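RECORD TYPE: inverse folding
INPUT: structure tokens
STRUCTURE:
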């Protein structure tokens, strides 16, 4: 059986972006600090218009999350 290997690796330049994409990252070792009091830090997430409406006809929703207590509230 005859195999023909005509692929020339030397004719291609090294793609720096490809090499960077294959590199592994060092894990994040920093400590995150949580808020020390209620309502000290609030995370807010707004959802873009949804294609399917809720039962009340809403297309958006917003979420508020308190960093200290981790309680969350959703409003349509």
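DESIGNED SEQUENCE:
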């Amino acid at each position: 059986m005859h195999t023909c290997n005509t692929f020339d690796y030397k004719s291609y330049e090294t793609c720096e972006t490809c090499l960077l994409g294959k590199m592994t990252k060092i894990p994040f070792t920093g400590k995150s600090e949580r808020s020390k009091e209620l309502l000290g830090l609030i995370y807010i997430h707004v959802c873009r218009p949804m294609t399917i409406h809720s039962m009340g006809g809403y297309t958006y929703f917003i979420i508020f999350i308190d960093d200290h207590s981790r309680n969350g509230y959703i409003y349509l």
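NOTES: Residues 16-21 form the longest helix (6 residues).
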